[in-house]
Specification:
26% of the residues lie in helices and 41% in strands. By secondary structure, it is an alpha+beta fold. It has one domain. The strands form three sheets. The protein has a three-stranded antiparallel sheet with strand order 1-8-7, with helices on one face.
């Protein structure tokens, strides 16, 4: 048996705007989390990232049913990383994360491909999140 929690894809009960707001919160918590990768690279690899020269971007990619997290360069800049110079154009991004969202159909396809079949699915009241119990085939 497998018990799997999944965030559901946009639907009548969950807009793309609501989903994006969860990944680009007003308090900046997600942005700080995303920029922490640059802090880590600076500390561990003596990189030269200026955190203020990048901004957090959350994007919905409908073709892949996922939220994409990016760090966007605010200006042309060059960064030293592990002895290499990496140039960024203004607007160029570093793609840092994917967070996939599922429909009932896409989740069933994923589980079947992994050797499981859906036994039962539970939803929150707003139908934005699912917990699926699956059985090995």
């Amino acid at each position: 048996m497998l018990l799997l929690g999944t965030d559901l894809a946009p639907s009548e009960s969950k807009s793309v705007e609501t989903l994006l707001a969860a990944y680009d919160d007003d308090a900046g918590v997600t942005a700080a989390f995303n920029k922490n990768i640059l802090t880590h690279l600076n500390r561990e690899l003596d990189a030269g990232f200026d955190l203020d020269a990048f901004t957090h971007r959350a994007r919905w990619n409908a073709a892949h049913s996922r939220i994409e997290m990016h760090l966007e360069s605010l200006a042309p800049q060059t960064v030293n990383l592990a002895g290499k110079r990496i140039a960024f154009a203004a607007g160029e991004t570093i793609h840092t994360e994917n967070s996939y969202k599922f429909s009932a159909e896409s989740l069933a396809t994923l589980l079947t491909g992994a050797g499981f079949t859906v036994t039962r699915t539970f939803h929150d009241a707003a139908h934005t999140f699912a917990v699926t119990l699956a059985s090995a085939i």
